[in-house]
Backbone:
């Protein structure tokens, strides 16, 4: 094949029976990796890593009434223990901004895209299991493993999202993407139920609370690795489309590095795609920071215990399961863009409400969790499916690498703002309210995106509703 650079290569899809079979296998990678995203990133590991870092800095863990105010020092740079996980996410994203486009270019040129997906998943899962050994004051190991896990998650999702374009027609993508996200929320929630039972009943099985948390964290890696076997066996590899095929692995790597600059240069030919990416960068940074910071905010600012945090995220997970399916149906009638805009308005009210939550009051926190779950699934699922319509054929992984640089586990601007505002004020309340700007800017930019023009510029088939 030759590289046309136009994205006008006609799409060829499997027949309906084969598409449904591969789609069912594809859903299960959402189910698999959501264990890491939920149990590790959203609930257990950030507060646990903060407690390890506080013991290293202050000799004790902090409380809302008596916080740890002594900084750690990394390469001579003072770091607040309470901001440490947020800074790790920021640092991993800065590296991802360089690595992910290379991963995407490699995936588009590889004849073994499925194998690349599962290989990255299993490396990330191994790092996740290794978090079991983070204990005492060993915060450095925790930082390293969290860094590796985040990079592998983001890299695998570049490949995973690109595969959506191979197994679903334009009219199917909102529904397929929404079902994938919904199954992910369900899977992550079910594992959290098991973890909740272990953490709450640790005395019954002869474990300390800390050991129960560490086992729960490691279980997410086992879950991630185990369920990845379903897409490994259920998906099939396909030859590259609209790119120059390279016979040797070394040749693919060299071409992938060079393609990073070509992608960035040629992306200017798709202004609506770029505008959507910029809008997504802002509003998704807000979404991701709310997700990642919610456990830290609830525990350190509002004084919620570990069991409450798990109940909160379970509510978010299971409501998001229904929310993703609901918003998928709404998008089928109104279009993805209008549905996402409506969700962003709700996000603004969520952040404002979070600022005013009282300390040690469980019910308001749980009610807010219902609203977060309602819009979370729809925002993420529809953003993925809408963007899939805007990328040139045969270049899906390259363009999804740019998308994943702002996706879950790799958000950087929001986490940086949240961490810096907390460090300057020693309070998470002004940090959470600062996130409003991300939703407002994202809303304004998304208003200017013309979906029909973006699809036409990319040379793709126009769906009935967009």
Residues:
């Amino acid at each position: 094949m030759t590289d046309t650079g136009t994205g006008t290569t006609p799409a060829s899809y499997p027949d309906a029976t084969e598409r449904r079979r591969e789609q069912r296998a594809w859903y299960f990678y959402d189910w698999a990796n959501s264990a890491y995203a939920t149990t590790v990133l959203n609930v257990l590991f950030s507060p646990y890593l903060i407690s390890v870092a506080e013991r290293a800095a202050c000799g004790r863990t902090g409380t809302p009434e008596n916080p740890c105010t002594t900084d750690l020092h990394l390469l001579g740079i003072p770091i607040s223990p309470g901001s440490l996980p947020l800074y790790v996410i920021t640092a991993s994203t800065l590296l991802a901004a360089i690595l992910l486009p290379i991963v995407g270019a490699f995936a588009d040129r590889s004849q073994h895209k499925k194998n690349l997906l599962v290989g990255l998943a299993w490396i990330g899962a191994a790092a996740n299991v290794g978090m079991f050994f983070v204990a005492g004051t060993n915060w450095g190991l925790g930082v390293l493993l969290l860094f590796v896990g985040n990079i592998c998650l983001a890299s695998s999702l570049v490949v995973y999202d690109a595969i959506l374009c191979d197994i679903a027609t334009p009219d199917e993508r909102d529904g397929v993407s929404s079902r994938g996200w919904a199954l992910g929320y369900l899977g992550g929630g079910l594992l959290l139920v098991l973890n909740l039972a272990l953490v709450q009943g640790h005395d019954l099985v002869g474990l300390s609370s800390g050991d129960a948390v560490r086992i729960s964290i490691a279980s997410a890696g086992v879950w991630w690795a185990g369920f990845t076997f379903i897409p490994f066996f259920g998906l099939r590899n396909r030859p590259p489309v609209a790119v120059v095929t390279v016979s040797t692995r070394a040749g693919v790597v060299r071409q992938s590095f060079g393609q990073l600059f070509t992608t960035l240069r040629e992306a200017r030919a798709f202004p609506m795609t770029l505008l959507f990416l910029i809008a997504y960068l802002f509003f998704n940074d807000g979404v991701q920071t709310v997700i990642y910071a919610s456990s830290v905010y609830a525990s350190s600012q509002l004084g919620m215990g570990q069991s409450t945090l798990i109940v909160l995220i379970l509510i978010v997970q299971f409501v998001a399961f229904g929310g993703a399916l609901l918003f998928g149906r709404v998008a089928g009638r109104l279009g993805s863009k209008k549905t996402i805009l409506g969700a962003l308005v709700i996000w603004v009210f969520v952040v404002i409400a979070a600022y005013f939550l009282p300390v040690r009051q469980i019910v308001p926190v749980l009610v807010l969790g219902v609203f977060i779950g309602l819009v979370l699934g729809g925002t993420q699922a529809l953003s993925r499916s809408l963007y899939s319509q805007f990328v040139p054929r045969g270049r899906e992984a390259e363009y999804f690498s740019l998308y994943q640089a702002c996706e879950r586990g790799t958000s950087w601007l929001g986490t940086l703002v949240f961490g810096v505002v907390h460090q300057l004020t020693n309070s998470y309340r002004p940090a959470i309210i600062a996130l409003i700007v991300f939703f407002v800017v994202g809303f304004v930019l998304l208003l200017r995106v013309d979906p029909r023009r973006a699809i036409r510029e990319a040379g793709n088939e126009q769906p009935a509703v967009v």
Residues 16-61+75-458 form a domain with the Growth Hormone; Chain: A; fold (CATH 1.20.1250.20).
